[in-house]
């Protein structure tokens, strides 16, 4: 029987009818045979198309990651990592052999001002293939050139991963691996975020955390701020129950080099919070954008605005002087506690000139705790000295001096500072640190007097 007929429903009545009509007639049989072949071919073609679609639908799975999602950066970093590993044996990163690569450069800025740039080759826009856990994966990176993300001007991008359906579980494995890699890269590190259009984006590589104890503040100051922040973070429910916005503002003020920025960085690191840097004088930052940024801060992050006094006093806010930046003072106050401002936020402000701040800014609700970090006190100088030179025979120490001697020298340092202060002079913690870095203990005790400046 021809394939066309065999695909008819097997109905007893119709079958007996057909066979009784045609079964004995050879001409009919031949004609039907030919027609059957034709129908059969077209059915076969339909079946092929259908099965390709079905194959795509049933046997392939795709995963789309857009660059709005954090997984996008994780995935590219993960790919870049595999590329880096592949320099030894190329099997791990077959896309190295593809012809479309793009470069991902990260900058690492060190405290002393030096920096280095790291280049990673990642798969560029186009189609690539890779093998992961014995599964072949097609990686298609596409850039939408026509539309750009609102405000940030970054083109939309997607990476689409496609693999066989039976291997679908590799996606979650792959994403988990990429995420774990990102988490490990940040472990023990401080992540700095900066505005990127309307969004916050990590800036540079995560930095090594600075121990909180390494910032030596006047007696009790460090604990006071730390306790306040911790207490606030514990009391979220208390705020929610009372319908109070869950926000707190801190102002650290005092002369340059007293440890304001260092302390805030160290504190964020010690609580495993990110630090979001906001520069109010930045070009193109206007009131509406500021409100948006401040009400959309990343989870577990502190906002840091340095030198708040400078943002509004420097210039007249016209665009005639070429300045496009137009955060107004009232706009800033609104962003801090207006109706549209975010529900949840910890904000740190710093200034060298608290006397220049408008009283409206430092009232409770905007600034809840204001702490002076001043020039070195005698006791601070001693503690910094002991922190620097103590620790005896640890690796990297220049001298090996027993702890008692260090303590004794520390008390000498304390006395020198006391005497100089009585003469109306001052020294910053930054200046002390600067000298300790390049001096032996004896030189430090000797030279400390030269650092003092008139008030
Ligand atoms: N209280 C301090 N304890 C330890 N180091 C300090 C202290 N104050 C300043 N420094 C050092 O001086 C430098 C400048 O400090 P920084 O935090 O930028 O001061 P500020 O922000 O108050 O101007 C940093 O390298 C920091 O390590
Ligand atoms: Mg500073």
UniProtKB/TrEMBL annotation:
Organism's domain of life?
Eukaryota
Query: Which InterPro entries does the UniProt record give?
Result: AAA+_ATPase, AAA_lid_BCS1, ATPase_AAA_core, ATPase_AAA_CS, BCS1_N, Mitochondrial_chaperone_BCS1, P-loop_NTPase
Domain AAA+ ATPase: residue ranges: 246-377
One cellular-component annotation, GO: mitochondrial inner membrane
User: Which residue numbers delimit the BCS1 N-terminal domain?
Assistant: 35-215
**PROSITE patterns given for it?**
AAA
Q: Which GO terms describe its molecular function?
A: ATP binding; ATP hydrolysis activity
Q: What Pfam families has UniProt attached to this entry?
A: AAA, AAA_lid_BCS1, BCS1_N
Q: What's the catalysed reaction?
A: ATP + H2O = ADP + phosphate + H(+)
Q: Which UniProt keywords apply?
A: ATP-binding, Hydrolase, Membrane, Mitochondrion, Mitochondrion inner membrane, Nucleotide-binding, Transmembrane, Transmembrane helix
Which PANTHER family does the annotation name? Answer: BCS1 AAA-TYPE ATPASE (PTHR23070)
> Under which name does UniProt file this protein?
Probable mitochondrial chaperone
